[in-house]
Every structure is written in C-alpha cells, then in structure tokens.
C-alpha cells in the first residue's frame, strides 16, 4: 500500500469513529428527550436550540472532572477496564454494512467476529467491577458476567437460523440474501435476538449490572469523569450496534424501495433505538432469579426449537 | 379462605408488557407537568411563606414595637434586633437583621408578632453569591406598604398613649371611667 492509500484508509476510519461518537452522544440527548416525552416532562432543553448542545455540555463536564482512582482499587485493571467496553463495541462496527458498498471490512466470519467481541465486552464490565474493590461494583460485575453468559447462548442460537437461511457468516452476504427480510422467516429468532441484545447492552429491563436502586451504580460506582464517560459511551454504542445488527440480520439492511440504502438503514435503526428507549421507560427491572430463569428456561429452549425447525425446513423444503 | 396466589411473572408477561407499553405511549400526548421556570413563573399562593418584610401602619410609621417575640420564637435564631424608645413613648427597633441563610421560613415570627409588623411574602428569588449578602438589615426589610393587613394600626387600637391620641381615644375603645363619678 502506498502512503496515500494508508492516509485514505486512516481518514475513513477516523470519520467512522467520529461519526459513531457523535451519534452516541446525540443518542444520550435523544434518549433523555424521549424518556421525558413519555414521562410528561420536557427533558434537557436549555443548552442551545431544543437543548441540542446538551451532549457538548455533558462531555465538557465529564472531561473537566478530577481524574480520581480510589486508593483501594487495582490501579492498572481499573484504568484498562473502561477502555475495553467502547473499544469492543466500536470494533464491531468495522463489519457492519451500511449500504451496498459501504463497509470497512467484509470478512467471511463477520458474525462470529461480532459475537466474539460482544463476549469480550463483558470483560470490561466484570474487570471494572472487580478492580474497583468495593462491594457494589463487585456485585454488578458478577451479575454482568452471569447475565452475559446466560443471554449470549440464546443470542448465538437465534443467529444460527439466519446463518442457515443465508448460508454465510458474512454480514454483507446475509443482507444480500434478504430479498424478503428474515424477520418474516425468523420472527422468533428476531425476538430472541432483540431481548438478548437488550440484556447484552445492560439496558432496562435487564440492567441488573448497574441497577441504581439496589447497587448504587453497579460496576461503575467507583468510576467518575472520563472513565465513567467511556463506560457510558460503550453502553450507547452497544445499543447502536445491537440496532445495527438487528437491521442487518433481520430487517433487510439497506434494502427498501425509493429511498437510498443508507436512509433505509438509518430509519430501521432509528425505529429499533426508539423501541429501546420506549422499553426502558415502560418496564420494571427483572429480579435476578427471574432474569436467570427467563434466560435459561424460556429463551434457550425457544432458540433451540427455532433452530431445529429452521434446520428441518431448510433440509427438506429449501434444499429438496 | 385461602388467598389467591400471585400469578407468576411468566403468566402475566405477554399482556402485561403490551399494556404497560401502550399506557406509557399514551403519555406522549398528555400535557407536560414541567413548568420551564425562569421563562414561565407560576403564581404563588397568597399565603406562601417567602422573603420576610417589616411593614408600616397606615400612617406610615413602623409597626414593629421591638418586643423581641419574633426573635425569641425563631427556632433557628436568625432574627436579631435592638429596641429603642422614642421620647413620646413609642418603641421601635434600632437595628433589625434577619439572616436568610439560616431562616427556614417557618412563619413562627409572623404568628408571634403582636402588631402584625413582620410578614412573610410570596417571594423566594433571593439568591446571592455570598453568605454575608443574605443577612438583611432593617433598611432591606422595611417596606413602605402595609402588607397583608391593610388598615391595621397598633397604636390606634391599643391603650397606649401616644402624641395625638390619649388613653381611651383608640378605635373600639371607651374613655376611661372617672372613678369619682362611679361611686354610689
């Protein structure tokens, strides 16, 4: 590769990173406004027109806060943990195809890559909870580990149905195979994926790792300033990623009439993100044992049965 | 009779989730509860307990007679005053300070006041940058109006003699009885 090619590649990467940061920042604003809308409030409307500069104010506040490491914390792990969370979520976006020709990488095991990164994500939260060396973060970290393991299984199994239908692990190929969006062929798979996605990103009603009523702020109790911002960023980019993956895997990605592909992709993602916000404000948090039994006794068998039916139909009907 | 067991979360899940989603969505179209405060100021009730003032009587004289009752009743000891007496017999506070950084706006001083001089007003916007600026002296407390009780004049109702009003000339007052003429 020549220097210009390197520069081009780097500038594209930078552009994607910056736009992801921006989208995540405005998602926080949008979430606060949507929550306020559904709770008879107004939400942040002071900074700039309609409060649109609120993310800037939040960021400035978090950056200018004192960088503090508790004396009882494990310094190195405490510092590394908040970096892992947004890092894995950002890295996953490399394989997400946005339009016909718009992606950073098209690897033949893209789906496995995404799943692996989302498994790595738990390390950030778990280590953050562990390294804080205090009781609430520890509980948060433990819950996070248990929750991630329980919900990763049905998630992976739900995605196998999509892989069977399209015959590929590459996200680009999966989108290309969807002349009919897979949500019509895999409705159960879609719901399982969505529920597990909410659980993976620690959103309500599955936000047990940071349950603020029981655990102060869970794994992020001892974090402040820019390190807390990194956890926060990771969570929101995670939400964005789940919405993007659901769009790519089940809703037909960039496919759609009249509008250009990017618009369709954005609209589908937006609807899913709004659903996330809507769910957050209407549901109470699950109890811990309910969470576990829901994951293992309901989602896992449902995902397995869904996979089996897909396999049988695929074997005798599509192939036959 | 046995109580009906609470249905497990699994049996209520499906309809419960949809119902709560629908209920929450309907709230998007209801009236906002938030009042955008500095832009829109709601009117406070007339008996709101806010900034404390010292009022004057209809003649324009100070109502306060410096009896120290407000200072005594104040649960946080934020009222300080020094009484003086005019040659003609009227009492008045020489100094009167209220420390609003301590005041809890309980209204006890208003209840204790025998001359309706000290009154709480519907005003709470008294932010200051320094603690010391919250200590109001007499000049800041004394207003020109009569506050909540227009027409009330302590010295015109009480049996205390002041220039221009002898004993027995007050409102609702009868002249003192001449004890010599009262003999049988």
TrEMBL record, chain A:
Its EC number is 7.1.1.-. It is a multi-pass membrane protein. Coiled coil: none annotated. Its main location: membrane. One of its GO terms (cellular component) is plasma membrane. One of its GO terms (molecular function) is quinone binding. It catalyses: a quinone + NADH + 5 H(+)(in) = a quinol + NAD(+) + 4 H(+)(out). It holds the Pfam family NADHdh. Keywords: Cell membrane, Membrane, NAD, Quinone, Translocase, Transmembrane, Transmembrane helix, Ubiquinone. One of its GO terms (biological process) is aerobic respiration. It is found in: Cell membrane; Membrane. NDH-1 is composed of 14 different subunits. Subunits NuoA, H, J, K, L, M, N constitute the membrane sector of the complex. NCBIfam families: PRK06076.1-1, PRK06076.1-2. PANTHER family: NADH DEHYDROGENASE SUBUNIT 1, NADH-UBIQUINONE OXIDOREDUCTASE CHAIN 1. Belongs to the complex I subunit 1 family. HAMAP family: NDH1_NuoH. This is NADH-quinone oxidoreductase subunit H. It comes from Nitrosomonas marina. The gene is nuoH.
UniProtKB/TrEMBL annotation, chain B:
It is found in: Cell membrane. [4Fe-4S] cluster 2 binds at residues 74, 103, 106, 109. Residues 54-84, 94-123 form the 4Fe-4S ferredoxin-type domain. It is a peripheral membrane protein. Its main location: membrane. GO terms for cellular component: plasma membrane. Its cofactor is [4Fe-4S] cluster. It is an enzyme of class 7 (translocase). NDH-1 is composed of 14 different subunits. Subunits NuoA, H, J, K, L, M, N constitute the membrane sector of the complex. The gene is nuoI. This is NADH-quinone oxidoreductase subunit I. NDH-1 shuttles electrons from NADH, via FMN and iron-sulfur (Fe-S) centers, to quinones in the respiratory chain. The immediate electron acceptor for the enzyme in this species is believed to be ubiquinone. Couples the redox reaction to proton translocation (for every two electrons transferred, four hydrogen ions are translocated across the cytoplasmic membrane), and thus conserves the redox energy in a proton gradient.
């Amino acid at each position: 590769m020549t220097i210009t090619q390197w520069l081009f590649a780097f500038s594209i990467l930078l552009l994607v990173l910056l736009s992801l940061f921006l989208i995540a920042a405005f998602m926080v604003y949008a979430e606060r406004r949507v929550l306020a809308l559904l709770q008879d409030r107004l939400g942040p409307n002071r900074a700039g027109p309609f409060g649109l500069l609120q993310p800037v104010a939040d960021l400035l506040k978090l950056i200018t806060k004192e960088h503090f490491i508790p004396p009882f914390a494990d310094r190195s792990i405490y510092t590394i943990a908040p970096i892992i969370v947004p890092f894995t979520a950002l890295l996953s976006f490399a394989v997400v195809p946005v339009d016909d020709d718009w992606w950073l990488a098209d690897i033949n095991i893209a789906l496995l890559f995404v799943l692996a990164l989302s498994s790595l994500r738990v390390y950030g939260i778990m280590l953050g909870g562990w390294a804080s060396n205090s009781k609430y973060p520890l509980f948060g970290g433990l819950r996070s580990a248990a929750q991630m393991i329980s919900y990763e299984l049905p998630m992976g199994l739900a995605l196998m149905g999509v892989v069977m239908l399209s015959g590929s692990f590459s996200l680009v190929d999966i989108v290309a195979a969807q002349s009919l969006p897979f949500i019509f062929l895999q409705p159960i798979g879609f719901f399982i994926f969505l529920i597990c996605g909410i659980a993976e990103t620690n959103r309500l009603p599955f936000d047990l790792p940071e349950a603020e009523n029981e655990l102060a702020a869970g794994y992020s109790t001892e974090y402040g300033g820019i390190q807390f911002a990194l956890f926060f960023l990771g969570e929101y980019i995670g939400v964005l990623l789940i919405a993007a993956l659901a769009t790519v895997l089940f809703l037909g990605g960039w496919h759609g009439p009249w509008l250009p592909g990017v618009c369709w992709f954005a609209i589908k993602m937006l609807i899913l993100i709004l659903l996330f916000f809507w769910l957050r404000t209407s549901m109470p948090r699950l109890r811990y044992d309910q969470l576990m039994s829901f994951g293992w006794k309901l989602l896992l068998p449902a995902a397995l049965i869904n996979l089996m039916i897909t396999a049988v139909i695929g074997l005798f009907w599509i192939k036959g | 009779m046995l109580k009906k067991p609470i249905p497990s979360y699994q049996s209520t899940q499906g309809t419960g989730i949809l119902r709560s989603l629908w209920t929450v969505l309907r709230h998007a179209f209801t009236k906002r509860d938030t009042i955008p405060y500095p832009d829109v100021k709601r009117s406070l009730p007339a008996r709101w307990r806010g900034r404390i003032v010292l009022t004057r009587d209809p003649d324009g004289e100070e109502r306060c007679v410096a009896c120290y009752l407000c200072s005594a009743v104040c649960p946080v000891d934020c009222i300080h005053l020094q009484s003086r007496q005019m040659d003609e017999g009227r009492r008045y506070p020489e100094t009167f300070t209220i420390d609003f950084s301590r005041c809890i706006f309980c209204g006890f001083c208003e209840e204790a006041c025998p001359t309706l001089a000290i009154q709480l007003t519907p005003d709470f916007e008294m932010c200051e940058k320094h603690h010391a600026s919250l200590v109001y002296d007499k000049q800041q407390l004394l207003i020109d109006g009569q506050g909540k009780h227009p027409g009330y004049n302590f010295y015109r109702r009480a049996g205390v003699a002041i220039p221009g009003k002898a004993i027995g000339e007050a409102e609702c007052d009868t002249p003192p009885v001449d004890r010599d003429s009262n003999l049988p």
